[in-house]
Design a protein that fits this description.
Bound molecules: 2'-deoxyguanosine-5'-triphosphate, magnesium ion
Helix content: 25-40%
Radius of gyration: 23 Å
CATH topology of one domain: Alpha-Beta Plaits
Number of helices: 9
Number of strands: 6
CATH architecture of one domain: 2-Layer Sandwich
Largest sheet: 6 strands, antiparallel
């Protein structure tokens, strides 16, 4: 293409190439979801339709974009981790982040009906994005642990808070006062002794958030074939397929990483 005299403006673009060898994390967070949840009557403290829609949208991001090895979500946020050797879009932060944010947002709208049925989406939701680089496996794991610890702390607080309001008859101000200064053990105790709820048996997805990874699993399907004798029969066919699978488990400890050793690349 011939150059025009306007061509120099390209040099005003800033270089936002992500440092090599680092994991690139893109974290999205729903814009003003306090209001969005209120307006769409999300159940408190957790709305499974909303959480599953978030997960469905994240799955679409992993399937449509390249090089995402793991994603972790809770509340109105989702983090996507690009493998450290990724060269997708020349590792340009703005390209990666905007692709993640737009694919996620359009999926959230596209799949809304699958989870909310006839309940209308009242206005277009938005998500902010940020990029963070992590140079080591330890740093990346600590990042994911930080998000899961956040999920735990918030969910425990919200579970007790809304139990005190919904089942205990307290006003929101009274529940807030009751929880001031309490530790995890105190919250467990309130749930157990006053409401007969064992926090550890609450839904894993609420306590642990959702982790998405690629996994190869055998899938069995039936195929109609013609046998040597000429008659038709259904036979079982097994093939190994790579798909995005959801886990709702602890990712802070060693067990998850020992079970899935191929998520992380070695530190060099
Ligand atoms: P932001 O992110 O600064 O634009 O503002 P927000 O309002 O999105 O604040 P954030 O992201 O710190 O907190 C997430 C909000 O989303 C929080 O107010 C509770 C709401 N939310 C998320 N998941 C659920 C849910 O399952 N049920 C209900 N009722 N609310 C939820
Ligand atoms: Mg926020
Ligand atoms: Mg938000
Ligand atoms: Mg949030
Ligand atoms: Mg283009």
């Amino acid at each position: 293409m011939a150059k025009s005299k306007f061509d120099y403006v390209r040099n005003f673009e800033t270089d936002d190439t992500c440092l090599r060898n680092c994991y690139i994390v893109v974290r999205l967070d729903g814009r003003n979801f306090h209001k969005f949840a209120e307006q769409h009557s999300f159940t408190k403290p957790n709305d499974d339709r909303a959480l599953e829609l978030m997960t469905r949208s994240a799955r679409s991001v992993m399937e449509e974009l390249e090089d995402i090895v793991i994603a972790y979500g809770q509340s109105d946020e989702f983090s996507f981790v690009f493998k450290r050797t990724s060269t997708w879009f020349k590792r340009r932060a703005s390209k990666l982040m905007t692709h993640v944010a737009s694919q996620f947002s359009s999926s959230y709208v596209f799949y809304w009906k699958e989870f909310f049925g006839e309940q209308p989406l009242l206005y277009p939701p938005g998500f902010d994005g940020r990029v963070v680089l992590y140079p080591s496996n330890r740093n990346l794991r600590d990042y994911l642990s930080w998000r899961q610890a956040d999920c735990h702390i918030n969910n425990m607080y919200n579970t007790v808070f809304w139990t005190l309001v919904q089942s205990g008859g307290l006003s929101t101000t009274q529940a807030e006062d009751r929880l001031k200064g309490t530790l995890a053990a105190d919250k467990n105790e309130i749930l157990f002794s006053e409401f007969n709820i064992n926090y550890n048996t609450e839904a894993p997805g609420h306590r642990k958030g959702t982790t998405l990874i690629w996994e190869k699993r055998d899938e069995i399907s039936t195929k109609r074939t013609t046998l040597p004798g000429g008659e038709e029969a259904d036979v079982a066919v097994t093939r190994s397929r790579r798909r995005v699978h959801a886990h709702r488990c602890d990712i802070i400890g060693e067990a998850f990483w020992a079970e899935h050793p191929d998520i992380l690349e070695g530190d060099h």
